[in-house]
Design a protein that fits this description.
62 residues, mainly alpha
C-alpha cells in the first residue's frame, strides 16, 4: 500500500482568496493606468474655487 503525500497542499480557500486578491490588484492597476477613475487627491471632492474655509454656522454670518 502506497501512502499519499505527507502534506495535501494548499487549502482551496487560500487559492480562491489569492486569486481574488490578484484580480482586485490587477483591476486597480488598470484603472490607475487608464485614467478611468479620474483625478485623485485631497481636493477631489471640493468644489472648484473653494478656498478651504468653512461656512459660518447659523447666526455667525457677518
Amino acid at each position: 500500500m502506497v501512502d499519499g503525500p505527507a502534506y495535501p497542499g494548499m487549502p482551496r480557500w487560500v487559492k480562491i482568496s489569492g486569486a481574488a486578491l490578484a484580480v482586485a490588484i490587477l483591476l486597480a492597476a488598470v484603472l490607475m493606468v487608464s485614467g478611468i477613475g479620474g483625478h485623485h487627491g485631497p481636493g477631489r471632492h471640493l468644489p472648484l474655487g473653494d478656498t478651504g474655509r468653512q461656512e459660518p454656522v447659523g447666526g455667525d454670518r457677518p
